[in-house]
Write a structure and sequence with these properties.
With 289 residues, this protein is an alpha/beta fold. It is 40% helix and 16% strand.
Length: 289
C-alpha cells in the first residue's frame, strides 16, 4: 500500500518556522513571549531593552466598512506603549514595501486620542522576516536592513517613531562554526530548524532549547499535527508556484527539451526546475496536441 502523503511531509523532527503554524507556534503565544522578546531585543538593539510584551488583536478593520482591513501575523505592545508588527513573508510580493507602509498606519492611527491631543506618538516598529531578497542585486549582501525617516539633505533622523526592519534570510549563509553573536544564532536557527535532528552544539542556550522543545512535532496532538501539515502544504505550494514563475521565461526551451525526448531527470539537472513543474509543462503540452 502506498504511504499517505501526509506522513511523508512530517518525517522531519522539528517544524518549519516559515510556515504560519510554525511561526506562530514559536513566537505567537503568551507562554512563549520570552522568545519573541529575546529575538526582538537582538534584532532591534534599541537603547532600552524590551522587558515585556502584550499581544494585541491582529485583525484591524478600516475606519469605515468600505475601507480595507489589515491582518498582521503578530502585533504586540511593550511596557512603554511602543507597537511592534512582526510579519513573516514567504515569497516575494508586488508592492510589499507599500503594504508595510499601509500596515504601519494602523498602530499610528489607533494612538489618536479624542478631544485635546498634542499628537505625541509612541514608536512603531514593522519587522519583516523574509524568505526572499527584495532584489536580485541584493543577493549575498544585507541580511538586516533598517529603514527610518531621515532628511535627504543632511542624513539626520527626521523622526524616530516609525521604523522598518527587514531580515532577508536567504542572505544569511553562515555555518554553525561561523556563528559569533546571539543574533546570528537566531538567524541560523530559524533558517535551519526543520533540517535538524538534534540540537546543535552552538544552540545550547536556554532560550534556544525552549524553541526546540516547542518545535518537536512528535509531542503534538493529532489536531496540531494536521494543522502543521496543512500549513506546510500551503508553504510548499507557494514555493512551487514561485519556482514555476521563475522559469516562465524559459518555458519554450523546456518544451523543446521535452520534444527532443529528454527525461525529467535531465531537464531537472539542466534547468533546476522541480519535477512537479516539469510534469505540469508536459501535461500542458499534451493538452495542446
Amino acid at each position: 500500500m502506498q504511504e499517505p502523503e501526509n506522513t511523508i511531509e512530517i518525517k522531519q523532527k522539528f517544524i518549519n518556522p516559515f510556515t504560519d503554524f510554525g511561526f506562530k507556534k514559536i513566537f505567537g503565544s503568551e507562554p512563549n513571549k520570552d522568545l519573541l522578546i529575546d529575538f526582538l531585543n537582538e534584532l532591534l538593539k534599541t537603547k532600552e531593552k524590551i522587558k515585556n510584551l502584550t499581544y494585541k488583536k491582529t485583525e484591524h478593520p478600516g475606519s469605515t466598512e468600505a475601507d480595507r482591513k489589515a491582518i498582521f501575523d503578530l502585533y504586540c505592545e511593550n511596557e512603554k506603549g511602543e507597537k511592534f508588527i512582526v510579519e513573516l513573508q514567504k515569497v516575494k510580493q508586488q508592492f510589499f514595501k507599500d503594504r508595510s507602509l499601509y500596515y504601519a498606519t494602523f498602530p499610528i492611527q489607533e494612538q489618536a486620542i479624542k478631544g485635546e491631543w498634542n499628537y505625541e506618538l509612541k514608536a512603531v516598529y514593522c519587522i519583516g522576516i523574509l524568505d526572499f531578497v527584495f532584489d536580485d542585486k541584493d543577493k549575498d549582501r544585507l541580511v538586516v536592513d533598517e529603514i527610518g525617516l531621515i532628511s535627504k539633505k543632511t542624513g539626520k533622523v527626521f523622526n524616530d517613531k516609525l521604523n522598518f526592519v527587514y531580515v532577508q534570510m536567504p542572505n544569511f549563509t553562515k555555518t554553525e562554526d561561523e556563528l559569533e553573536t546571539h543574533e546570528e544564532k537566531w538567524f541560523y536557527l530559524l533558517k535551519n530548524l526543520h533540517k535538524f535532528d538534534r540540537i546543535p552544539s552552538k544552540l545550547q542556550d536556554k532560550i534556544f532549547k525552549k524553541v526546540f522543545k516547542i518545535a518537536e512535532i512528535a509531542k503534538y496532538s493529532a489536531d496540531e499535527k494536521q494543522q502543521y501539515i496543512d500549513s506546510l502544504k500551503y508553504y510548499l505550494d507557494l514555493k512551487n508556484s514561485l519556482d514555476y514563475a521563475k522559469y516562465e521565461g524559459k518555458i519554450e526551451i523546456i518544451i523543446e527539451m521535452i520534444k527532443e525526448g529528454m527525461n525529467n531527470e535531465l531537464i531537472n539537472r539542466l534547468t533546476k526546475l522541480s519535477f512537479e513543474n516539469i510534469d505540469k509543462i508536459r501535461i500542458e503540452l499534451n493538452d495542446k496536441r
